[in-house]
Design brief:
2 copies of one chain form a homodimer.
Chain A (H helix, E strand, L loop, with lengths): L5 H16 L6 H8 L3 H7 L3 H21 L7 H12 L1 H4 L5 H4 L9 H29 L16
Chain A binds a DNA duplex through α3.
Chain lengths: 156, 156
Amino acid sequence: MKDHSVREELVQHASRLIRRRGYNGFSYRDLGDLVGVKTSSIHYHFPAKGDLVFEVMRQYSEMSSLQLNAINADLPLVEQANQHMHSLRYDITLNEICLAGMLPADVLDLPDAVRLQLRAYFEMHEQWLDALLQRAVPERGQAYPVPTLAFAKETE
Amino acid sequence: MKDHSVREELVQHASRLIRRRGYNGFSYRDLGDLVGVKTSSIHYHFPAKGDLVFEVMRQYSEMSSLQLNAINADLPLVEQANQHMHSLRYDITLNEICLAGMLPADVLDLPDAVRLQLRAYFEMHEQWLDALLQRAVPERGQAYPVPTLAFAKETE
DNA sequence: GTCTATACATGGATAGAC
DNA sequence: GTCTATCCATGTATAGAC
């Protein structure tokens, strides 16, 4: 069953505030007003703002990980890709930017721990996709196309 | 020749600060320290922070428009696409997010005028790409592929 | 666990001297 | 056009009563 504790409500509303306004775009007052508590109560649960965003990102990563692992690896690869897409599109249906898309904008103000969470999140998806595409190679009889427009290699 | 007036330095450094920290992530103090003037001097040139970001975005849009129009429409379409990509990749070589990629994160705090600038910027690129792809149709003998994975149409 | 009260820093902005 | 000085709102955070 759902957890309706104040702590959990704080996390949920904070997640929404971050997606809408960015990490620097909301205050403890904003969050307290939404949940119906004072800022000092938020500090009781999350001493610093960094602790709050850490928990928000932790839950987001956990959910995303569960969704990835829930995809049956025996299904056709295209079907697996579609299921993956289906979970990614969730935020889009809400007309919102996902957490992992919003947080990087304020990355210089995030605690190191949260930056590591973000890195892990992206690597998780990258590795999942890479594994899927590797498996697709024998099916197509050739390597999958990598973006190789002129600019891709011109790094200095 | 380059304009080295204080006003222009403010715009350039503000552009950089926005790309790195976001609109909400830097202060007039930060900017003043970089340029070597006091915050009150910034207010002389740009009474409100919204005026500053407007000028930053105005110059960015203008530059982007010039780059688009500089592409010779008689070149092969792939070559045109590559030239377009080449100008877009500029920020990436600096390991930075481009202005139009960063500002939307703080869109709820931007003046309406800047939101309109952003909308116009994206529409400009969309229309340029659309025109290019339309011209590509006869070359390939069929309509160009639109992203139509399962999720694309499932809007409610 | 939540509150009131408050501390303390920062941020945007203005007034007026030079 | 730039400065000093200052205002006032906001933001994070803490102390201590209940």
